Amino acid sequence: MSQLSQALRNALRYFPPFHHNILAAEFTQELRQYGHIYMYRFCPLIHMRAYPIDQYPCRTRQAASIMLMIMNNLDHAVAQFPQELVTYGGNGQVFSNWAQFRLVMYYLSEMTEEQTLVMYSGHPAGLFPSLPSSPRAIITNGMVIPNYSSREQYEKMFALGVSMYGQMTAGSYCYIGPQGIVHGTMLTVLNAGRRYLGSDDLRGRVLVTSGLGGMSGAQAKAAVIAGCVGVIAEVDEVPLRKRHEQGWLMEVTSDIEHCIQRIREAKRSKAPLSLGYHGNVVDLCLCRQVAAINKLSEAGMFFWDYGNAFLLEAQRAGAEVEKEGGGATEFRYPSYVQHIMGDIFSLGFGPFRWVCTSGDPRDLTLTDDIAATVLEEISANVTERVRQQYNDNIRWIREAGKHRMVVGSQARILYSDQKGRVCIALAINQAIADRRVSAPVVISRDHHDVSGTDSPFRETSNVYDGSVFCADMAVQNFVGDAFRGATWVSLHNGGGVGWGEVMNGGFGLLLDGTEEAAKRASLMLNWDVSNGVREGPTFKLSASLLDIMGKSK
To answer: Which of 51, 199, 409, 499 is the most buried (most CB within 10 A)?
Structure first.
């Protein structure tokens, strides 16, 4: 059987046979034109967004919370290519086709608290009996036998509709727009200043980078919050204009001379600026870009790879990025994890997040205040090394509202450690119980976190004990969260650096003000962080022991 015929058979299995003749012609055209069957006919005509949780017709609020998060991932203001079910990253999908979306929403509307929805790379396998304490959804995306986890195999499997690329929070229904990475980006820029320049005063300093997509779009806002001049090249005018219209980008230009003039003016005035340049960061090839980076670095520029496996791809292209005597994941330049964020992760700090399911901005403002108060109380009794992180994060959450970062759901990102996450979750849950917060709150995190991801060229690139290509941590995290109280869990192949290069997972947990929700949050969050900050034969995060010793005194 040809691959085209197999792809059609796979797509038509969602429909009764008497519809096959009409649909087969449409699906064949889609496959030939786009390389995949998206089933555009079944794309809903409703305004896709995160509606208040009580508007979803469900038997359990746990299911309703998943529906809300799915629809937020497909909101046109949030998603990169919503018609193709791509949330971010060019190919990070929520589902593989629109039939899957409709089936999943139906299953969730019928689900009870004694059932679990099983998801196979976008395909809903069905509702299965489970316990009230079990997750309401178990999601796997791109799980492939290791010898077949190549890009070529991905293209074939994706065309057949049997696997998909969920990126990180796209396929796990936990994306919160560009805000999801902006706190981490701000911390990266701030700590780069401390490391390379010996100062956290970045006024008049220039950050040159590229990309204004679903994740990279955070760079503009982060630069301004950090106080520097951010110049971001973007070759596609659509995301460039989108970020400008959303208030994430202050200025736009396509004139390189005007761009240089504005950089000089902002440097002199020491005023924060985010400037989007419509054009490529470099023309032609990776090798040419690396040659320019090498020359500028010799002149005093500090360069780091910010998470898209740039140095790995440059090495594969034959560019001069080799590090003499370096290991398998070491290059001439560091990744941001190796030089900056690795030590932050090793202290247990990572991108905790929550979504106010009421959709009411007042609930978000209140939860911001709750989180800030909790962190201020904890910070009085931590080591000096940890206190700097707390101070950075308290400043962040106290100022978050004024930076107008909400795109889509009423959500907040906040770097926090194990104790902070647990205490914030319990405090928010109590506020829901006291009816100060008007509706349940979903807590989650980015997969790019302390223990959610095994990624040798990004999150775990600072592992030097030989275990860098092992993926036990991410898998154990997925399994451990599942039986410790998560409302849903996910495990993905690929995310950030590419298919076959990383294993990562995430969770969602609904806080509804009950004692059961508090118990789940405490049990699960303690595991979710401590799994990555641990002592053992594959001690992933080198700075952890110092903090553990400090706390034990």
So the answer is: 409
* 353 DSSP β-pair partners: 413, 444
CA distance 264 to 246: 26
The full DSSP string for 102-150 is HHHHHHHHH--TTEEEEEETTEEEEEEE--TTS-SEEEEES---GGG-S
Q: How confident is the model at residue 535 (pLDDT cuts 50, 70, 90)?
A: very low
Judged against a pLDDT cut of 60, whether residue 551 lies above it is answered with no
Residue 76 token pair: 């046109």
Least confident of 126-140, 332-346, 364-378, 392-406: 332-346
Burial of 299 (0-12, 13-18, 19+ CB in 10 A): exposed
**Tokens matching residue 545:** 């022991």
Does pLDDT of 543 surpass 70? no
Extended strands (E) in 261-364? 273-278, 350-356
- How many Cα atoms within 13 Å fall on the side-chain side of residue 33? 10
Task: Note the pLDDT tens digit of each residue in 248-257.
Answer: 899 999 999 9
pLDDT above 60: residue 447: yes
- Distance separating alpha carbons of residues 507 and 518, to the nearest angstrom: 16
Chain centroid to CA 312: 21
In percent, how much of the chain has pLDDT > 70?
Answer: 96
Is the Cβ–Cβ distance between 281 and 308 less than 8 Å? Answer: no
**Range 289-295, long-range pairs (CB < 8 A, 24+ positions):** 289/314, 289/319, 290/314, 290/319, 290/320, 290/321, 291/319, 291/320, 293/333, 294/320, 294/332
d(CA 24, CA 4): 11
Q: Which residues pair with 503 in a beta bridge?
A: 454, 493
**Residues 385, 435: contact at Cβ < 8 Å?**
no
> What's residue 548's pLDDT?
46
At 169, list the tokens: 């929070």
